[in-house]
Design brief:
The longest helix has 15 residues. The protein has 3 domains: 78 residues, ACT domain (Alpha-Beta Plaits, 2-Layer Sandwich); 76 residues, ACT domain (Alpha-Beta Plaits, 2-Layer Sandwich), CATH 3.30.70; 159 residues, Rossmann fold, CATH 3.40.50. By secondary structure, the chain is an alpha/beta fold. The protein is 37% helix and 28% strand. The chain is elongated and about 90 Å long. It comes from Nocardioides oleivorans.
Length: 404
């Protein structure tokens, strides 16, 4: 448009070293221009610096000064005169996180193509991690997240990558609540099978557990049947089971990092409070809810005390914890792997199927299938470098790949 302000786009490329940015801005400052936008990236020590400024009346003179400065720096430069600012396209803005191991160019091409098909534009791309997975965050404008999610979720399944679409909002930066399943999510394996090994019933319990997690059996009925097989197991076996628990890779890192940022955590489990309460205390988790095994005279009776925490119970717990923390459901995150996690995954602002059963992956709009629970951090806009820097400040050496 004729009435749009004239602007100059300065694009500088070359070997990165100290003083490049200050030299270019020194050249610009003599012309008294205003800075409207700036982007700078470094890839393999190669700098790409883009600066958008107001164009002075004698813009060609400024162009000559910039070109001489670039030559002195032994760098290439382009100066383009145009009109207008660098505004995002109208419509909602979204954050799209892509995780691959590896992340191939063909996958990026396909995702970018679907974004373009939706009439959206990729405004900026940032790297969240380069190991043990590759994670990128795309800042996208021009299409609502609700329109992008189903299309990109289907594409992610086809490509074998993990992908999350989140609407840009203040909730993403504020205090949030994370509610996690326990068995095969926060920890590796199923606690009830570990207890069943003490009764010689591990194979039978595992068979029923798998069917329940696939959604083939009513969860409460299957749980009561499995617990009945534990009758007579000494209560002391629970101590042995707890001692043998192995956390999911990156679990401690995720909790530790997000607690620093003021996040609240809850675990809800179809397992047992005798285990989950200890896990919560060990990890610094704020809330825990699970089933309670009945113990009489130092032995399991094969019964559960009180109501069963099932699929509906997990979603109810998420809502209750959110109300207690004082956050809206849009600011909650639910992570789980089995059919009994589906209601809370659907209720949360961001529901994540973590190395989940097929029916859960199909139902959830966000899946993480790499074996590192702290990959969830990348979905929240937290980079691997930020995690390591925060740990280094308190003397923690973050393992690679992240194991705890």
């Amino acid at each position: 448009m004729e009435d749009e302000p004239k602007t100059l786009l300065v694009t500088l490329t070359g070997k990165d070293r100290p003083g490049v940015t200050s030299s270019i801005f020194g050249a610009l400052s003599a012309a008294g221009v205003e800075v409207l936008d700036i982007e700078q990236i470094v890839l393999r020590r190669r700098l790409v610096l883009g600066i958008l400024v107001t164009a002075p009346r004698d813009w060609k003179k400024l162009r000559d000064v910039i070109e001489r400065t670039a030559a002195e720096l032994d760098m290439s430069v382009e100066v383009d005169r145009g009109a207008g600012d660098n505004r995002s396209r109208p419509g909602e803005r979204s954050h799209i996180t892509i995780i691959g191991s590896p992340l191939k160019a063909s996958a990026m091409a396909a995702v970018a193509g679907r974004i373009a098909d939706a009439g959206a534009n990729i405004d900026r791309i940032e790297r969240m991690a380069r190991y043990p997975v590759t994670a990128l965050e795309l800042h996208v404008s021009g299409a609502p997240a609700e329109a992008l999610r189903p299309v990109l979720a289907a594409e992610a399944v086809r490509l074998g990558i993990d992908l999350a679409v989140q609407r840009e909002s203040l909730h993403r930066r504020g205090v949030r609540l994370i509610v996690m399943d326990v068995d095969s999510t926060l920890i590796q394996g199923e606690v009830i099978e570990m207890i069943a090994a003490h009764a010689g019933q591990e194979a039978e319990v595992a068979r029923v557990t798998e069917a329940a997690m696939r959604g083939e059996l009513d969860f409460e009925q299957s749980l009561r049947e499995r617990v009945a097989l534990l009758e007579g197991v000494p209560a002391s076996a629970l101590d042995e089971v707890y001692a043998s628990i192995v956390l999911a890779p990156g679990a401690r890192t995720m909790v530790r990092t997000l607690r620093r940022l003021g996040y609240r955590f809850a675990i809800v489990s179809g397992g047992f409070s005798q285990i989950t309460d200890r896990l919560a205390a060990d990890l610094g988790i704020h809330f825990a809810r699970a089933n309670e095994l009945e113990i009489v005279d130092g032995h399991l009776t094969g019964r559960i005390v009180g109501d069963v925490v099932d699929r509906a119970g997990k979603a109810a717990a998420l809502r209750e914890f959110a109300a207690e923390v004082g956050v809206p459901l849009d600011a909650t995150i639910a992570i789980g792997d089995g059919a009994n996690d589906l209601d809370m995954i659907e209720a949360a602002g961001l529901g994540i199927a973590y190395n989940a059963k097929p029916m859960v992956r199909d139902a959830a709009l966000t899946s993480v299938n790499v074996p590192y629970l702290d990959s969830v951090l990348y979905l929240l806009g937290i980079s691997r470098e930020e995690i390591e820097d925060a740990d280094a400040e308190v003397g923690i050496v973050t393992p690679a790949p992240l194991l705890g």
